[in-house]
Amino acid sequence: MARDPATMLGLYSLPSEPGSGSMKSRRRSSRAHDGVRTLLALLLAGAGGVGCAEQQHSRAPSILLLSLDTLRADHVGTFGYERETTPFLDAFAEKSLVFEHALSPAPWTLISHMTMLTGLYPHQHGVVTGDWALADATPLLAQRLSRAGYQTIGLYYEGWIHARHGFDRGFDHFESHASVREAEQHLERVLDDLDPARPFFLFLHLFDIHCGPLDPEHRGPIYDCPAPYDSMFVEGASELLPDMPEGKLWLYKGDFSSDALRGLTALYDGGIRYVDDTLRRWFADLERRGLLEEMLVIITSDHGESLGQRGNGINDHGGAYQEGLHVPLLVHLPGQNVGRRVVAPAHLVDIVPTILKAAGLPADARLPGRILTEELPPARPLLAENPASFEMVVDWPHKYVHLIAARRTIEVDLEEDPEELVGRELDPSAFEHRRGAVLEGLAAWPPAQPVNESEYGELEERLQEMGYAGDVRGED
After folding, report:
1. Each residue's pLDDT tens digit, 143-190
2. 353, 90 in Cβ contact below 8 A?
3. Domains of the chain, with CATH numbers?
C-alpha cells in the first residue's frame, strides 16, 4: 500500500534532479520511408514458468510508448494505492502484463528517457548530465524503426527531452507541447495524417503529473492541476501548502508540516487522475479509429516523486529511494486482452529489446535488456545511478546503494524493509565487486558527445535563474 503523507526517516540524503525549463516549440519533419511487411511473433509469458503462446500477424504492429513523467508506482491503483487515482490505467492493467518490480535507471528525466529510448544503461549511453548528447553512432529506437519502414512520431514536453541531446533522431515528426491539452491537439492531427498502409511508432511523453512551471515568482500551487482535480482528494489542498512562490517551494529543503504533506500528496494525486481521465478519452479515440486492437502499447514512467516524505524537500524526485526509482510498467500485446502479473524484476532497459522483437527486427546482442514478453529470470542484478549522488545495484529483493558524497554504502532488503528505514552498512569493496561484475558484462558504446552550446544556452539560462545550473553541468 502507499505510504501515509507523513514524514519518514530514511537512509539516504541525496542531491536533487535539476528541474525542467520551458523552451520554444520545435517541430521536425524528414522524408518518408518505404513500407515493409514483417511477421510478429510475440511470446506471452509471466514469471514462474508460465507457458508461451505465439501470435502471427500479417504485418508489424504499430507501437505506442507512453511515458507519464514523475508517476511513482505506489500511487497507481493496480500497484496497491487506495485512492482512485488511476481507474483507466487499472482497467488497462487487467488486460496487460503488469510488472510489479520495474526499476528506473535514474530519478532524472534526461538520463531515464535516454535509457528508455536507447535500451542502454546510463554508463553506456553517457548522457548523464545536461551538457552531453547521445553519440551520433549510437542509435535511438526511432532510428531503428524508421529504417524498418515505420512512421515515427515523437510528441513530448520540451525540457530535458530535446534535440540538443539527440532525442529527435529518427523521428519523421518531432513536436513539443506545453501541456496535455496541447498534446491532445497534436495527437489528433498526427493520427489524421498517418499512412494507414504502414505501421507507426508513437513516443508520447506527458509532463502534467510533474509539478508546474517552477517560475520563481509564480504564486500558483505546486502540482498545479485544473479543477475539480485540485480538490478531488482533499478540499482546499492548495491552501495547505506553505505560503511561498512555487519555485521557492520546489527548492525548499526543510520539513513540511503534516498539513502541507497532505496537501502536496492530494495535489499530486489530483494530477495523476487528471492525466488518467485524459488517457481514457485518448484510448477511446484510438479504438474508434481501429488502431488499438493491433497495437503494442507500453505505459511507464521515467521516475517517481518524493512528495517531501523524507524531510528533505521535494525536488529530488525520490532520489535513491524506491519512491523515486520504482516505476509502473504495463505492456499490452496486440490482439490480446490477457492480464498477468509478473513478479520477476524488470527495468527500463528492457523496453527497446521488447519493441524490436515486436517489430520483427533482429535482436541486438549489445543491448543489456530482456524481452518483456518472454519469461524473465526471477533474479538478475540491475543498475541505477545519478552521477552526482549515488550508484546502485538491485538484485531483488536486495538493494545496494553507494552514496557518493557521503562515502557510505548501504544494503537494504526491500521485502523486509520496504520503506528503507533500517538497512545495514556494507563494505565499499563488496559493493564495487557487485557493480563491477555487472559493468564487466556490458557492451561498450561510443562515448557521449558535448551538446551544441547554441541549443543549450537558452535552457541553461532558464535553470540559472532557478539555481539549477550546477546540477545541470554535473557539478556538486
Report:
1. 999 999 999 999 999 999 999 999 999 999 999 999 999 999 999 999
2. no
3. 60-378 (3.40.720.10)
